[in-house]
Amino acid sequence: MNTILRIIEAFKNFLLEIGELSDFAGRFFKEVFKPPLEFKEFLRQCYNMGNRSLLLVGVTGFIIGLVFTLQSRPTLQQFGAVSWIPAMVSVSIIREIGPIITALICAGRIGSGIGAELGSMRVTEQIDAMEVSGTNPFKYLVVTRILATTLMLPILVFIGDGVALLGSFLVENLKGDVSLLLYFTQVFNHLEFFDVIPSTIKTFFFGFAIGLVGCFKGYYCKKGTAGVGLAANSAVVFSSMLLFIIDFIAVFVANIFYDV
Amino acid sequence: MSNMIELNSTNTKAIVVIKDLKKSFGENCVLDGFNLELFQGENLVVMGKSGSGKSVMIKCLIGLEEPDSGSIEVMGKDIKQLSREALDELRTEVGFLFQGSALYDSMSVRENLEFPLRRHTKKFGVIKDTTPLVMEALESVGLANTMNLMPNELSGGMKRRIALARTLILKPKIILYDEPTTGLDPITSKEILMLMVSVQKKYNTSSIIITHDVDCARMISNRMILLIDGINYAEGTFEALLSSKDPKVQAFFK
């Protein structure tokens, strides 16, 4: 009985949190077009998020491309379909693996960073200090960060995809003596408009979700150092969950158009 | 039963009036009908035990906490009735010095001071060169040479001074101090108190000082309020309260 009550309570809390998050998103849309635009802070956040995540995204993308090709090669070889590797790898990476893996990395790297930073600002009363000086901390801290993640994630995904294909090419070059030109001709021959556009659109939503959840968790962080840790941690967990939900919806919607 | 001691003040114009303020957190009733009047140019010390609701009271005053009931008037404006924009405008007239200084740690001292200045173009206009204003505020707190330092390069006392400079840069009429000497050694505490007195003289501000430091109250107060059980239990000058026979009042001075 107790377990059931606990599950009901947890579900209730989850729904409440979704409600508060929607409220927070609503406030973002209300504030986003209001002056001042805080352009300098927005650029600083873009630089921080993009530049500092680039190496991690690049290395992960390269390894994924490399491993994916290495693992697929023996099976495709059995069917005499090795020449399909560039097409198969590029479609998989660009449509699904690249965006979701990069987004998950950024949820860990950027989302937790935002949660911890805003959380510690809340705990040390820096956000209150902005509030009492009448300077709208929401605009300066939240709006700039959400806009930065929304813009930077598609760029990081684009770079991650490119590096993953380079990793895949490296395997093909070493094992099958495929040239760079041949590999990428194969890739672009098989990629279609439909492979690129929906996956690019969904990365904007991924970026928005990561920024929104990170800011939400940090901005309303409970007092104390434990609260900061919890804000960072729950920012990653909650945004990762949200990424999969958005991904499911995006694929579902895209497939409706694809079937037509 | 409240133990009010007659206020001996020649000032008559109250610029902050709090009436019957009530605030609870769940079952815990923190303020239970608190009243306060702050007169032009005075230093009002509010003393109380830890957790008695002193900080909650000034946070209600500046709109950081929403009271359950009661009214708060700051410079003739009921803060409950103000729009977000009007409240932000009023906040430029009310400085707040936080217990932990609350300096923005990703910004230099200069940026900390410029931050509110650049965003209040209604009050100050668009300022192309903020250096003279930043220097003036830093000189007021005796730290003119710290402009390019980061907060993590400052000592506790210096942080408190810079936070005061950040408050002063908006030229407020009222300053709220939340435990201004907590966590500082006696010498630095005394320096901060002297600074508060000199700031009041220079800028002609009125102040509410939240503290449980008796020395602070002795040095700086024109008038005191003892916050006990959520109400203004006793009120008067430091000397008047010191000579009170009420055991609850006496407990603060032992």
UniProtKB/TrEMBL annotation, chain A:
Q: Does the keyword Membrane apply?
A: yes
The record lists the membrane-crossing segments as: 53-70, 146-171, 201-220, 232-258
Q: Name one GO molecular function term.
A: phospholipid transporter activity
Domain of life of the source: Bacteria
Mode of membrane association: Multi-pass membrane protein
Extract the InterPro entries matched here: ABC_MlaE_roteobac, Permease_MalE
Annotated GO CC locations:
ATP-binding cassette (ABC) transporter complex
Where the protein is mainly located, per its record? membrane
Instruction: Give UniProt keywords alphabetically.
Output: Membrane, Transmembrane, Transmembrane helix, Transport
Keyword Phosphoprotein assigned: no
Localization in the cell = Membrane
Q: Spell out the PANTHER family in the cross-references.
A: ABC TRANSPORTER PERMEASE PROTEIN-RELATED, PROTEIN TRIGALACTOSYLDIACYLGLYCEROL 1, CHLOROPLASTIC
Family to which the UniProt record says this protein belongs: Belongs to the MlaE permease family.
Please name the NCBIfam families in this protein's record.
MlaE family lipid ABC transporter permease subunit
Q: What is this protein called?
A: ABC transporter permease
